[in-house]
Amino acid sequence: MNKVIECVPNFSEGIDMDIIGQIADDIKGVDGVKLLNVDPGKATNRTVITFAGEPAAVVEAAFRAIKKAGELIDMSTQKGEHPRMGATDVCPLIPIANISMEETTAYATQLAKRVGEELRIPVYLYEYAQPDKSRNNLSIIRAGEYEGFFEKIKLPQWKPDFGPAENDVKRGATVIGARNFLIAYNINLATTSVPVANAISADVRESGKVMKENGVVLRDANGKAKTIPGSLKYVKAIGWYIEEYGAAQVSMNLTNIEATPIHIVFDEVCKRAEVHGTRVTGSELIGLIPLKAMLDAGKYFLSKQGLSLDVEETELIAAAIRMMGLDELAPFNPQERIIEYVLKG
Amino acid sequence: MNKVIECVPNFSEGIDMDIIGQIADDIKGVDGVKLLNVDPGKATNRTVITFAGEPAAVVEAAFRAIKKAGELIDMSTQKGEHPRMGATDVCPLIPIANISMEETTAYATQLAKRVGEELRIPVYLYEYAQPDKSRNNLSIIRAGEYEGFFEKIKLPQWKPDFGPAENDVKRGATVIGARNFLIAYNINLATTSVPVANAISADVRESGKVMKENGVVLRDANGKAKTIPGSLKYVKAIGWYIEEYGAAQVSMNLTNIEATPIHIVFDEVCKRAEVHGTRVTGSELIGLIPLKAMLDAGKYFLSKQGLSLDVEETELIAAAIRMMGLDELAPFNPQERIIEYVLKG
Asked: Which of A96, A182, A289, B171 could make an S-S bridge to A4, C-beta 3.0–4.6 Å?
């Protein structure tokens, strides 16, 4: 079984399609890597590129892209709505198949070392790749942004993990690390009511809901609102209404699908929807999903019905699509939505 | 508020479209009546016509249709797969809006009396219009069919309620009565498994499921299989798989939606689907539905969510469509599916 990792670098250029195209071409040029998505944002002046493949190839492609971004993007004149600190602002590696987070972290560290030593760009490690808990969070590392980093980088506690302890005028500094696969997942409700969707969201999301007594928010000694945690760890959720669908949704980010798989999220939202008097009609997955998540979901739903698990992979996937209603709003083509299939195709 | 009744006569001609057309034309010719459907069957050699309107007009149209069928259909040569005893085989009146079953029964009796006295056709009353429980069931009345009625009609216990106690060679005898509105209603499941759909059906249908111990059917002293009744009265249900939809359904007949409304049926099937490890994705209503059933459903589902019932009729209907997923397989246009709207349109 091939090891697969994904890489989702964010570059500080969202307008000049020539620059974006050159960076993407460098990624595509590496054997064993498949470019999955290029998503430029004009207002943010930032482009998110997604690619995946076997680990060494992904690291090589990431290195080339970071190098090219440093040559083409000038941070001393860059402006945009999104916080940023470098030409390559952040570059996470994500385990997809047959690879542990520990191994992925080793690849991230290897990439960071090359970027620091060969390209002489200051690099900070983050998330799983950063053992120091005081500096493993992206927004804390990035605080001060490009303009503030000329000072911040001199502080002993903000010495980069690799590369010079001096902000690069043209390229800034960058953040490299390993993190979990993120899934943006929306569950469709048989209601148009945003309050109902929000009540369900508050029941399930890890951050939970604010405690109230007679309509007044309860606070602790420090004035912080007391909360009741929701039932699902690693889940962020809000309720909203989508005019186009004529339906409210529980809109979620799943930040650790190993610990809290998508099928568990689906089932729990179904239960809470029932408590709030409505019903789940289907769901909507944004972007791609690892094969294992779909197979696990298929097995889970067939088991629940007492049906045989001794079936083809395609049937497990079909059961997952059917039970979660992934095709309610638009067709769900496994060849286009499951990362491993896209890499093969 | 206008009183509305529906009439669904079955005529023993399903092949000769000229005859069917002449009968339908007589119905259409009556002011205050709307022809809703003409459904001829070749193999059964039988046509089911549906029309509705204000009660006196419906009775007049039914009378004219029965008269015309008697003139055009010759039972002495008629053949077909469906059991039948007369040119007009059966003619039920059904309360739809602002009218009780008692009043509807009175109209049915008035129609039967006219048919017996003016047309000289033997008429049996059935269902709510027949107080004698030994002869209120259509299939018991019809037993023996046209060929057997020359003898059966002479028996004291089978003396017709109206008309001569002699079978009419050309027109046979007929059955007129009052019954509840019937709804054919299918609930869609997120599974392809017929056993799962059948297990849900057996849980909810009035006839329930056969009791077994170690795989052996339990029987009473007379050898009759013991059963555990299902949770819903006036509901017949089976599970099946529809290739076209790629989904299993619980396929139902609801025979008394006053006692067991459609929204209660929907909710109960949702609950049992969950117990059997699957999920309801939507539902499918065959034919038309009275407005009250849709409004009651809308109110029920909004109440469950704690939402205001002080909304427009269209919004109640939209909530019912949304919660029951009536538009999952095909668009559900209230103007074409709600009887009162069709009558107005």
From this structure: A96
